[in-house]
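Internal tracking record. Fields below are filled automatically when a chain is submitted to the structure queue. Please do not edit lines marked as system-generated. If the sequence contains nonstandard residues, flag them in the REMARKS field before resubmitting.
Queue: standard
Priority: normal
Entity type: single polypeptide chain
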Amino acid sequence: MSVASLVPDSRIDPAHIPELLPWSVRFDVLYPYSTLFSHIVPTHNGCPPWTAELEAHYQTFQHRVWVCLALDHYQDMRVLEELRRRLDECERSKAGASSERLESAMECLTTRCRIRLERLYGLRVVRDLFLRHLGKRHGCSFLDHQMISDALASCEDFVPPKAAPQSLWPLPLSPPCPGLICLGDLGVDWTEYALPDHPTARSEKARRQLDAGTYSLHGFDESAADEFVLDDEATPLILPPVARARSSGVASTFARLVRRCHAPVA
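SYSTEM-GENERATED OUTPUT FOLLOWS
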């Protein structure tokens, strides 16, 4: 049993997807609501801070982008869960060599899932979580566009996305229809289509600590974390807009917090 045989192929190598989620979106919006990043920040069970600006940028991606990424992600997460089960069995039977291969395969899959979320798919995951909370509030499982728009209506002021709705195809696959802005198009600067970076006190503090190599999950002050409650009808569904700020130069957390998955070995 080799490590390679334990890791399924994916349709899309997430490392080939442009980096479209900036540091503040990853740290403040994605990481707290995904258990795959519990090594960076504690995982929250509440409603994520989805905003009208995030919704506008989400709508710029052709809807099949999310279908393609979801198929790979669900496969990887399902296999990862199965490997965890097998690892537990190996540890009980003290099969050391098998445990090492299972752990290596799990590391490869975990890294691939994290990259996929950080590059783009995390936007869909957070939106789905927000919609589940919104649906519970309205007592329904289906939310139409108007209900979502009403929930996000506010005086929030933001610069509209450069791309038109349903126009972006940032995947290394053939586009499903003509007229899209595609990954393979010459001269496309994908930084122009990335979500804007709005650093907060928490994200900037974490960024500085990461740059200095002093970041620690247990040492990071969570007292400044934004509370985002959806239980009270009087509670707004979006956070107050934050001040515009410079783009973050923080590299992907995989360069800092996760060991790279090397070529599988037998």
